[in-house]
């Protein structure tokens, strides 16, 4: 761009050949001074270059009207008798300036686009950083985890679960009739195999036998299956094992070849795998058989203890195929039964949350009762952990631990967010329990290894068992929090 020339000194002025009047030096100096002052105040280079909005019409070289005429008319009004500054405005310069404006606008657009791209790149980089941080946190959590991660099943609900008695394997019976097995570890759960279409309807019961060789299952249409654990192949299949409309509600393995099932109508069927059929059937109550467990009598012969909804405990002698004892009814239904203290005690959970105990061989009347701290919370399942500690799955979503002989509540093992805990089992080494609900597709694992060296007396002195959370629950107690502030 061509800029206006500044006023030339007087000694460089071009004088024509004609005579001119002498020029007064003071007048020349004054004229130069006025012109320089006018020129310096009229041009703002910074605003021109920065905004690019000014035009030639916006430029005023002087307040003098003669100078304005000279700006727009070139040299038309100049004469040889007058010495004046002439400023030439080049159209090419104006076009260049306009092009510069357009280029500046284009540059601004490009800069905005580059800024937007930079912002997008920054966002992407931040997302990548967040993903890395999340992955690091997950990895750190997995390294510190002392139990397997939750096990979730897609597009199906869980109707039964059972730990293998010797291997780190858990089997799940699903609502679509499949049985799926996983190898569990603290790092991850690895899918082993799925036995498709074992049943046509939802699996309601699932259990390994004592050796882990067989996997028993029963479904909603009352069909009972026995599968080979290693191959997944079906060994025997008992169709319509119970009457139509009466669901199978309980199961117990008696030995490697004999097992029993109970239903909602109080019927108990004993099955022999070798004979591929029912060994015998009994009905001594009108209410559901909710739980069964094999116990030996005084002659070391197998018997079957059956807890029912009428509040009674019935003892069936397998050899004689008869019921030998039935207890006095309790005030509530009996929901689950297990043996403890080297099978010298039989413990039953109840519909009101209490635990009642029987002495082995004396089942006419329970000899002890221990109420639950959760009022009106039914016990759905019991799992013995040690010879004195039993874990209860409650219908209020809590899993509680209780010490028996002497009796005291120990605290909360885990939570299921107000959902009923319907299924509960313990791993082969006793370090884990798994739990779920009939209306869930997720199994939760809880580490209970701390019970191996549990000091009940020391523990009982400092806690409120009703609200105390045991280490397995992953919930911090208020007492633990404030003790850390001391």
Automatic annotation (TrEMBL):
Ranges for region Disordered: 1-129
Keyword entries, A-Z: Repeat, WD repeat
Sorted alphabetically, which PROSITE patterns does this protein's record hold? WD_REPEATS_2 (PS50082)
Q: Where is the composition biased (Low complexity)?
A: 39-51
Biased-composition ranges, Acidic residues, are: 53-67, 78-129
The domain of life for this entry's organism is: Eukaryota
Q: Which family does it belong to?
A: Belongs to the WD repeat WDR55 family.
Q: What is this protein called?
A: WD repeat-containing protein 55 homolog
Origin species: Cinara cedri
